[in-house]
Amino acid sequence: MTKQMKTAMAAMLMVGTLPMQAQTSQTDVVKVAPGQTKKTVIHRKNGATDTVISEGTSTGPKHHVAHRRARVARAHVETATERQLRELQEKQTAQQAEIDALTQANAAKDAQLAAAQSAAQQAETQAQAATAQAQTVTTTVQANTDAVQSLKSNVTDLQTANVGLATTISANKTELVEKIESPTTLHYKGVTITPVAFFAFEGVYRQRAINSDINTPFNTTPFEGATDAHTSELNFSGRQSRLGGLFEGKTPMAKLSGYFETDFLSAGATSNNNQSNSYTLRVRQIWGKAETNGGFAVTGGQTWSLLTENGKSTDVRTEKLPNTVDPQYVVGYTWARQPGIRLQQKFKSGDNAFTVAVAAEQAQIIYSGTTNAPTNFEFGAPGQGGGLYNAYSGNYTSNIAPDVIAKVALDTKNIHLEAAGIGRSFRDRVYPAIGSASTGYVAGSEGTAPYNDVKEGGGVEAGARFTSKFVDVAATGMYGAGIGRYGSSQLSDVTVHPDGKLEPIKNGHGLFSLETHPAKKLDIYAYYGGEYAQRTVYATGSLGSAAFTGYGAINANDTGCQTEVPPATGGFTGSVTPSGSCAGATRYIQEGVFGFTYKAINSPKYGRLQYQFTYSYLQRQLWEGVTTGAYGGATAAFGAPKAINNMVHFGMRYYIP
User: Fold this and answer.
1) What value does the mean pLDDT take over residues 524-540?
2) Using an 8 Å Cβ cutoff, are 242 and 198 in contact?
3) CA 296 → CA 251, 291, 343, 356, 358, distances in Å?
4) Quick check: 616 and 328 in contact, CB under 8 A?
5) Where are the alpha helices (DSSP H) in 433-522?
6) What is the mean pLDDT of the chain?
7) Looking at the predicted structure, is the pLDDT value of residue 78 above 70?
8) What's the confidence (pLDDT) of residue 454?
9) Residue 72: what pLDDT?
10) Does residue 359 contact residue 404 with C-beta atoms inside 8 Å?
11) Helix (H) or strand (E) holding 78
12) Are 391 and 384 in contact (CB under 8 A)?
């Protein structure tokens, strides 16, 4: 409250008391005991009382009276106005006290309010600071939460990684132990060695005996005139069991490979079936290869011929062989295994590849089936023992050049296409001064001096194969002049003119293959193939049975092909060649094969145990010749003799993994 307000209130109180009437009063003296304080009580008309306390104490009656009189006199002096003023002053004083108290209270409240406001401001500041701190804490907590979640995630990932690492370590340990205890390859310095082997029990039943092991010389199937055509044969064999190995080394520039495989399908001069069955080890393949990172490769050694159907590109070890026990395979199959050198360049684009290859391979001439051949030529000789060629029964061509083969192949995911061409050279030594009674040949313009004559031959090969999970279908074929040796039946490459010069025979052969895989352990397959040699004959200038010479001559004497003649001596005298005359040349050979392979055990760790069975029907037909009488005679009759054979091959093999 302000000073002006206080003054105004005091004035108002003073003015309000002035009209009040004076009031009478009565004074009483209160007696007290000696030694006590004296009191004077004044009674007013308004009922109010005033007490006046005397100074000192009473010591006796006299003193008490005097003292009372003096105090009464003093109390009587105050007038009504004075009293009113006094009361007003007292009220003013009391009000002032109240005002002061209120002022003090207000001041205290103001101070408290200021303090409260200051405290509130401070609290607000603190609250803001606390809020900021709380926000910081919240942010920190969120960051910590994120960090904790990240840590949890990292821990989870680490646990997962540890589990995966433990699994990987366990798997690697298992794999390492497996590789140590059961290695798929052996290691020598920087070379890996992969063993190749299978162990076989095999056999063949033939309706008409050929006196052969499990391999079938198709072009010797006997006619009815042969003694062996009337006896069957059952032969067991373990000779196709195979041993080999693949050697591989990688350099920064190229991959180096070496491979060999052998079996026992050969016979030495002392080999027989009497007791020990001692047959010699032979080379099937042995070669080395270098392949650059750019797809260029060179292969040298004894391999499958480049003409053999491949399953991939023109790479060695991808050859597609018929699924037969017979190591001569199937009539119509194109193949040879012989020394040579091969160059190839592969161009790849994803799953597709295009390959170009060229090879120079060992040459050899097959000569058979010629009627009334002259005697004034030669193109080879038996092998010399010191030269490591077979001197017992082998004939070897004196080659002027290798067989040169070129091939292209296109591969997609499921299809393999290939086409090839071959060039061959045939050379013989001719002696024109020597005539032949059978041909009546007389030297002509060439003179009488011996000379070498060279003829060229060759042909083309093509194949297509579709491969899938459940079926493989393929067809291959070859046609040309002088290409008989590349068919399984080994038909003649050449015949001879009356003057002694060689002449390539036009040949053709083909094979259709259907191979199915109805179950994981079962393969069922069928093949049909055929081989053909064209009639190639020349007039000799003579009459009668010597009128023609060549392959498939009409004057060939086939009178003994179908008529059995008893042997001249007993014992080991059976033969696939009739004792009578059967000189005709093979026109066509065909074979149908049906079979299955059951893989009883097929483990990448323990190997494969399989059982195999095939049935084949073989037919051989000659060119037409004289079957009755003599050529040029009145009773001469002509026919094309035919021979058939039913064969069953069976086997059990264990392949190492």
Assistant:
1) 97
2) yes
3) 15, 6, 8, 10, 12
4) no
5) none
6) 85
7) no
8) 97
9) 47
10) yes
11) none
12) yes
Q: Residue 155, by phi and psi: left (phi above 0), alpha (psi -120 to 50) or beta?
A: alpha
In the chain, what is the greatest distance between 2 CA atoms, to the nearest angstrom?
Answer: 220
Structure token digits, residue 13: 């109180």
CB atoms inside a 10 Å sphere around CB 160 = 10
CA distance 535 to 588: 11
- Give the position of tokens 């056999």: 203
Torsion of CA 105, 106, 112, 113, to 10 degrees: 160
Confidence of residue 394 (pLDDT cuts 50, 70, 90): confident
589, 620 contact by CB (below 8 A) = yes
Task: List, in order, residues 6 or more apart from 52 with CB less than 8 Å away.
Answer: 39, 40, 41, 42, 71, 74, 75
- Condensed to tens digits (0 to 9), the pLDDT of residues 161-191 reads 677 777 777 777 777 777 677 777 899 999 9
Between CA 531 and CA 551 the distance in angstroms is 15
Q: CA-to-CA distance for 475 and 276, rounded, in angstroms? A: 42
Task: Kindly list the distances between the CA atom of residue 626 and the CA atoms of 225, 251, 551, in Å, as whole numbers in the listed order.
Answer: 15, 66, 14
Tokens of 634: 């009145």
Distance CA 165, CA 172 (A): 10
Give dist(CA 237, CA 216) in Å, integer: 13
How many Å apart are CA 360 and CA 341, to the nearest integer? 6
Question: In what helix (H) or strand (E) does residue 425 lie, and over which residues does it extend?
Answer: strand 415-430
Cross-strand bridge partners of residue 43: 26, 49
Integer Rg of the chain from CA: 66
Residues 307, 454: Cα–Cα separation, whole Å: 23
Residue 576's contacts (CB-CB under 8 Å, 6 or more residues apart) are: 209, 210, 211, 220, 221, 222, 226, 228, 229
Pairing of strands 254-266, 548-551: unpaired
Cβ atoms < 10 Å from Cβ of 183: 12
Other CB atoms closer than 10 Å to residue 190's CB: what's the count?
A: 10
Reported for 58-62, long-range contacts at CB under 8 A and 24+ positions apart, including other chains, are: 58/32, 58/33, 58/34, 59/34, 59/35, 60/34
Distance CA 61, CA 52 (A): 20
Tokens 């026992």 correspond to 264
pLDDT for residue 197: 97
Lowest mean pLDDT among 43-47, 452-456, 484-488: 43-47
Mean predicted confidence (pLDDT) in 290-306: 97
Q: Quick one: residue 483, left, alpha or beta (phi over 0 = left, psi -120 to 50 = alpha)?
A: alpha
Q: What is the pLDDT of residues 111-129, one digit of tens each?
A: 777 776 777 677 677 767 7
Residue 166 buriedness (CB in 10 A; 0-12 / 13-18 / 19+)? exposed
pLDDT, mean of residues 409-431 = 97
Instruction: Identify whether the C-beta of residue 330 lies closer than 8 Å to the C-beta of residue 620.
Output: no
Six-digit token string for 449: 């001096």
Residue given tokens 């750019």 in the structure block: 294
For 243, phi then psi, to 5°, come to -130, 145
Task: Give the C-alpha separation, 102 to 105, whole Å.
Answer: 5
Q: Would you list the DSSP string of 199-258?
A: EEEEEEEESS----SSS--GGGPPPTTSGGGGS-EEEEE-TT-EEEEEEEEE-SSEEEEE
Q: What is the pTM of this model?
A: 0.74
